[in-house]
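Handout, section B. The chain below has 334 residues.
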Amino acid sequence: MIQGEEIQKLEERIFKESEWVDRLKESTAAVLVGQNQMVERLLIGLLTGGHILLEGLPGLAKTLAIKTLASSVGGKFQRIQFTPDLLPADLIGTMIYNPEKKDFEVKKGPIFANFILADEINRSPAKVQSALLEAMQERQVTIGPNTFPLEQPFLVLATQNPIEQEGTYPLPEAQMDRFMLKVLIGYPTRDEELEIMRRNLRGVDGSKALSPVTDPASILRSRELVGEVYMDEKVEKYIVDLVFATRFPHKYPGIAELRPLISYGSSPRATIALGRAAKALAFIRRRGFVIPDDVRNVARDVLRHRIALTYEAEVDGIRVENVVDDILKRLEVP
């Protein structure tokens, strides 16, 4: 078990290494109005290398938030508009014949960047989604006989529109599971919307003058420090119980009634994602240790796309968030 003195030294290192976090928040606040939770989730993805799926109605600054994050970090950014006629070669690249050399050469695609904005990802066919899957999971791309490692940090930030279903290809469960977080974006408040209107009427566009506040090397150093954040055994067991409660609710007091609502629960990737996201959140909040509230704070975003409801639950209008909230309310917190 880590001692109090060691945690104090770790927090001193975290305080020094995480200075860029505040600068990045200030930088994004100059462009984005509100959406603080979305920015925090993007930071978690940045600090863990976990991919993020943003779901929300059009016009809620999903694309702008991702572009702002990339500009603030100073990494390479590529926006890929996913459409039904997109081909895997349009994403990862292809082999092109060079008549002068009388040989084939590799032409790399837009996937070779630090930040990939996969806009409206559910509009792409299965072949394109499977090509993206290898990049997300393996951090590498295969073009012909060659395999190329992707640049680090590498982060896929995908968006999808929940209301338009025509001409879309729903993401399969295997690909959904690769996203560390699924973040739902809501409407701004009345005051935030007023500020958005005023900025636009004044012609204010902070993103054009945005300069990097950190660099990819600092991000990679911070990731190593996030891995050192202390997590007590009781918190570890709490994370495992949260995931197991989605699979076997009948084994937990007060949660048994959820069993008819769940078709299948979360995979082990959820356990890993909860631990990593909770550590990243502790780092963002300048702590050298994880508390149960860190786990509870990220649980909805980690679990909502990893639980399938039964047909009966869907007919009754029950949402995955309702099930996750019930588990969080009734499971004993250490």
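Note. The chain is about 45% helix and 15% strand. Compare this with the example in section A.
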